[in-house]
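To whoever is on call:

I kicked off a structure prediction for a single chain this morning and the downstream step that reads the tokens threw a length-mismatch warning. I double-checked the sequence; it's 107 residues and nothing unusual in it as far as I can see. Pasting both halves so you can look.
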Amino acid sequence: VLEALEAAIGSGIVEEAVAAPGKLATYRFCHALFQETLLRELSAPRRNRLHLRIARLIEERHAASLERHAVELAEHFSYAAESSDLAKAVTAKPNGISSELWTCKLP
């Protein structure tokens, strides 16, 4: 994985996000087209599993501050294949947004 990450960084596809001291490094795509292209190459079941895995990791790592990650959780759970995860996507809405508006944002 590290070799692939380093190759992607060297090719200008991925860049390291600014990390706070003592925090794990995070990475992002240099352009949205790179991300879209790679996502299209994944099968739908694999994409769904990845979204589910990401959402569960966010829940685990940010258990004390889920409200701050509500938008990310809703996005990833909405793409997960299980209906129970879609329910989590709807209930993860941040405070101050009506349920009607929030559910319209789901794919």
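Update from on-call: the warning came from a stale cache, not from the record. Cleared it. Sanity check on the structure: Confidence is low (pLDDT under 50) at residues 96-107.
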